[in-house]
Amino acid sequence: MQGGERYNSISDYLKSEFGRKTVKLSIEAGFTCPNRDGKIGYGGCAFCSAGGSGELASSGESGKLASSISEQIELLSAKWPDACYLAYFQSHTNTYAPVSVLRSKYYEALGDPRISGIVIATRPDCLGDDVLDLLEEINREHFMWVELGLQTIHPATSDLMGIGYHADVYDAAVDALLSRGIKVVSHLILGLPGETREMMLESVRHVCSRSIFGIKLHLMNIVRSSRLYEMMPDYVPFDSIDEYVDLVISCLEIIPTGITIHRLTGDVPRKILVSPEWSYRKRTILNTINRELKARGTRQGAALL
After folding, report:
1. CB–CB of 254/204 below 8 Å?
2. Separation between Cα atoms, residue 78 and residue 82, nearest integer Å
3. Are 280 and 273 a contacting pair, CB within 8 Å?
4. Is the distance from CB of 225 to CB of 49 less than 8 angstroms?
5. What is the pLDDT of residues 236-281, one digit of tens each?
6. Least confident interval from 61-65, 233-237, 264-268
7. What is the DSSP string of 5-21?
């Protein structure tokens, strides 16, 4: 473990990689999603907000990407005057466009001398060979990882949430990226409707069975602009912070120590949050996880020893 922590945090990894604090600049680059434009469906996955997980991202549409980067660095430089920055293409599906468009946007961000690397979030069903060729090209010269939204390995849950693909599509995408030497970060959601504790742990075991670079564990947040809220307005994923923390610790214990931990909860603006009503208290959740790990004398990978 790095930094004396009980899990291999991405912040420690990046500090080791670049020698100083490294910050991701969340960019909304003007992409949509096949689950929004009608290719697969409309409205996005049932749990998605109108912003497509990008409520905290800064707009990069119509040539504004450069100004978005500058604005964010200006805001953050007072807190971290010597930080490194990664361009994080976050909102919607950031490989869902012609390769010429992708190339232009990615290299525009990488052309800023203040940017030390790139992070691209996408769906595993939006990685054609031409896109993979571009990603491989960028990866040869720049620090990069690709984030894939799996959310769950259970087909019934995927279908209920209208995700549009199952774990076999994710598996193929991971294998294709890894074969080209590209780092992969996998997203899972804890608390999806109908899933038991063991089902969630099965999803964690599945993604950890491949040589992924990192993992994100998202707390299932019900937001007002989602179809899930319309479907199940009274659904509460976890009754308490303690219940959620207990599950996260069990997840950490089965994640190999070489996998970086990118997220253990979620970020949702309080004004659109429905439940769990306590989930906006991100710092409290993280502090409770760290305190409980210490109290139990456990850590990432402990169950694998």
Report:
1. yes
2. 9
3. yes
4. yes
5. 999 999 999 999 999 999 999 999 999 999 888 889 999 999 999 9
6. 61-65
7. -SS-BHHHHHHHHHSS-
What is the spatial distance between Cα 74 and Cα 40, in angstroms, rounded to a whole number? 39
Q: Return the CATH fold of 10-299.
A: TIM Barrel (3.20.20)
CA nearest to 215, candidates 3, 2, 10, 1:
10
Does this model's pTM top 0.85? Answer: yes
Cβ-count burial 77-116 (b if 16+ within 10 Å, e if not): eeeeeebbbbbbbbbbbbbbbeeeebeebbebbbebeebb
DSSP string, 183-240: EEEEEEEET-TT--HHHHHHHHHHHHTS--SEEEEEE--EETTSHHHHH-TT--S-S-
Domain boundaries, the chain: 10-299
Q: Amino acid identity of 268? A: V
Q: Which residues contact 210 (CB under 8 A, 6 or more apart)?
A: 171, 174, 175, 178, 184
**DSSP string for residues in 121-159:** EE-TTS--HHHHHHHHHHHHHSEEEEEEEEE-S-HHHHH
Residue 261 neighbours by CB distance under 10 Å: 22
**292: CB partners within 8 A, 6+ apart:** 245, 246, 249
pLDDT digits (tens, 9 = 90+) for 126-139: 999 999 999 999 99
**DSSP state, 57?**
P
